[in-house]
Amino acid sequence: MNPIEAGLTLEEVLRMALLPPLEMRLFLERTLALTRVQLITQSHRTLTEAEAHALSRLVTRRLAGEPVAYLLGEREFFGLSFKVDPSVLIPRPETELLVELALDRLPAAGRLLDMGTGSGAIAVAIAHTRPDAVVHALDVSPAALATARGNAQRNGTTVHFLQSDWFAALEDDAVFDLIVSNPPYIVAGDRHLAEGDLRFEPVNALTDHGDGLSALRILCQQTPAHLSAGGWLLMEHGYDQASAVRALLAQSGFEAIESWRDLAGIERVSGGRLASR
Predict the structure, then answer these.
(1) Is residue 120 part of an annotated ligand binding site?
(2) What is the DSSP string of 44-70?
(3) What is residue 88's DSSP assignment?
(4) Which positions in this protein are listed as binding substrate (predicted)?
(5) What are the residue ranges spanned by the domains of the chain?
(6) pLDDT (tens digit, 9 = 90+) per residue, 78-110?
(7) Is 230 annotated as belonging to a binding site?
(8) What are the two backbone dihedrals, phi and then psi, of residue 223, each rounded to the nearest 5 degrees?
(9) 91 known member of a binding site
(10) CATH number for the domain running over 79-274
(11) In whole angstroms, what is the distance from residue 148 CA to residue 153 CA?
(12) 117 is in an annotated binding site
């Protein structure tokens, strides 16, 4: 049975308590190809049978837990619009901290590498803000890279993409001024993997199926071979991993090691500068 019937006005649909008002508005805008202003000015318009069916499908899937971003097929990040699908993580506001820190440390015409790019949100946001930079991004997933390439084109940026399992496919002499990553860092078995949007996102991009530090260890240990002297490594991590990540950075010879807090006050990003050789 469809939760929304033909003949209902837009105003009546928006008053229904099936979903939070913002989500229902977004689904109405998508289904009817209307703007927010048009939803208001056409509030007494009634739904056709086809419109009610299409809207009901979206609402039913959302009630089953599917993320709004996947249902709409897009998400805003750093002021840009990104296509998203179940092959990539949904870009989140807290990751914008990583972009801001990277922009502060990227030299003029600098070379940057985004490890495990997923949707390409980090790489594209940086390339869009700093068109002088040479931005590279890699991911092990061909499907994710296809999505990332589309997002680079969608936002008018130039990003050089490479399929690679971390550093495996990089040339030995590939060197960057800055390396950034939002790697899988959730501990295997964490209850959050079975809750909310995470249930629908690619599990291999969320967890290392271990202690949550495997990818962070690889980044700390192997980055020095591909980082210029004085270059930075910046990594997003879990809410309780900052101390462990700082220790990994110190063990790999980084200096000026620091952790930065997101808007919720959580130590979300840690990084360090490679000491001069």
Answers:
(1) yes
(2) TPBPPHHHHHHHHHHHHHHHTT--HHH
(3) S
(4) 182-185
(5) 10-64, 79-274
(6) 999 999 999 999 999 999 999 999 999 999 999
(7) no
(8) -60, -40
(9) no
(10) 3.40.50.150
(11) 9
(12) yes
